Amino acid sequence: MSSLFVVSLVLDNLTKHFGTVTALDGISFSVKPGEVFGFLGGNGAGKTTTMRIVLDILRADSGSVTWNGQPTAEAPRATWGYLPEERGLYPRMGVLDQLVFLGDLYKLSRKEAARRAKDWLERFQIADYAKRRAEELSKGNQQKIQFIAAVLHEPPVLLMDEPFVGLDPVNVALLKEAFLEMKGRGATIVFSTHQMEMVEELCESVVLIDRGKVVLGGPVREVRRSTGRQVIRLAIDGDTELAWLADVPGVRVVRPGQDYAELDVEQSVDPETVLRAALDRGKRVTQFLIDDPSIEEIFIEKVGRKPTEELHLVGTGAASGGPGAPAGSGAGAGAGTGASTGTGAPA
Ligand SMILES: Nc1ncnc2c1ncn2[C@@H]1O[C@H](COP(=O)(O)OP(=O)(O)O)[C@@H](O)[C@H]1O
Ligand SMILES: [Mg+2]
Q1: pLDDT value of position 94
Q2: Structural contact between residues 258 and 305, judged by C-beta atoms closer than 8 angstroms
Q3: What are the pLDDT digits (tens) for 116-163?
Q4: DSSP for 2-59, written as a single string
Q5: Which listed ligand is nearest to 15 at the C-alpha?
Q6: Which atom of ligand 1 is the closest one to the Cα of 16?
Q7: What number is the average pLDDT over the span 100-106?
Q8: Is the dihedral of CA 182, 183, 187, 193 positive or negative?
Q9: Distance between the two ends of the chain, CA-based, in angstroms?
Q10: Which of 41, 61, 68, 219 is the most exposed place for a label (fewest CB within 10 A)?
């Protein structure tokens, strides 16, 4: 089969400056059709700017974005379902009324728009709010309405900017289900997040950006394996301190915890030495798991800070010495960039 031409979203070498701030510094990656794709980066990394450029809300200084081989600026508007970061409904308009109104913009009949909207409201457990004004709803429920507004016309591509922010666990679960359903219908879903716990569960592929540059990317499994390191999740009955581990060479607790601790093991060390050392000390091991590092750990390793920590760009090239530089990040930020080759390159 000749499949040289794969339908996908391709971002090629995007740059964008705001005054002296370099928001995007050569962003390239591609998203395969039908995949759930995680667009990762801390605050200020450049996620929202990138999405706005994809949607042609904002113009890049250079670089290009294509969908299906065509510049995205020329793609029909109905191609996209967009959940913007700054949410906004018509506050005084009824929930169902505004969904029908928005459907009309995509040439859906009133009847069809209402049918789809009611279906979604039902599924999101807010059918009772159909006649309420948007402003009467909680923030979480408003966010669900906005999600419905973005998907009502059943777009082939969803671009969701931090869709999980501000949702309680029940709503997070509902939204995840909705994602999987849209995927089941063949949609390509790109969502940005700085909440790494979403990623492993939902995404097939990711790209991680920092300071407007791609740090790493690819299928989640490959990214997790790419470090060549393994981690151990260990729980011992009545011992959360794990002080004895100090005597086991090449092993380090990276995340202590009441439930289990996460240990980093040097490549030369057989993870089973840890299990043996524990048993030799007469410990009762309730959990022992050898695994690839989590996306969150890899993020911290590559970027040099937690995804939730704020980054302030202070003009071109000044970031490393500027007030926004996180403690101990000097090595991390530099070390990561070498690993970014081949990121998200289309097959
Ligand atoms: N309209 C704008 N004017 C000036 N600076 C901007 C503007 N939009 C974004 N920036 C800056 O560009 C960088 C990237 O921002 P953004 O794309 O919003 O990041 P993210 O969505 O990953 O948090 C930040 O330093 C931000 O302050
Ligand atoms: Mg943003």
Answers
A1: 96
A2: no
A3: 999 999 999 999 999 999 999 999 999 999 999 999 999 999 999 999
A4: ---S---EEEEEEEEEETTEEEEEEEEEEE-TT-EEEEE--BTSSHHHHHHHHTTSS-
A5: 1
A6: 12
A7: 92
A8: positive
A9: 15
A10: 61
Burial class (CB in 10 A: 0-12, 13-18, 19+), 243: exposed
Q: Which pLDDT score, from 0 to 100, does residue 115 have?
A: 97
For residue 289, what are its two tokens? 């798991």
For a substitution probing ligand 1, which of 20, 22, 49 has the most ligand atoms within 8 Å of its CB? 49
286, 242 in Cβ contact below 8 A? Answer: no
Exposed/middle/buried for residue 276 (C-beta within 10 Å: 0-12, 13-18, 19+): exposed
pTM here is 0.82
Angle formed at CA 232 by CA 337 and CA 254, multiple of 5 degrees: 60
Give me the torsion for CA of 297, 233, 37, 306, rounded to 10°. -20
CA distance 252 to 330: 21
- Band of pLDDT at residue 66, cut at 50, 70 and 90: very high
Helices (H), the chain: 47-54, 95-105, 110-123, 139-151, 169-184, 197-202, 220-225, 272-280, 295-303, 330-337
Quote the ligand 1 centre to 183 CA distance (angstroms): 29
Domain segments of the chain: what residues?
A: 9-223, 230-291
pLDDT of residue 181: 92
pLDDT tens-digit series, residues 204-259:
999 999 999 999 999 999 999 998 888 999 999 999 889 999 999 999 998 888 88
9-223 — its CATH code?
A: 3.40.50.300
Residues with CB under 6 A from ligand 1: 18, 21, 23, 41, 43-49, 313
Tell me which residue has its CA closest to atom 17 in ligand 1.
Answer: 46
| pLDDT higher than 70, residue 332 | no
Residue 2 has pLDDT above 50, yes or no: no
Residues found in the chain: 347
- Cα of 86 from ligand 1 centre, angstroms: 13
Residue of the nearest CA to atom 16 in ligand 1?
Answer: 46
Reduced to 3 states, what is the DSSP secondary structure of residue 88? coil
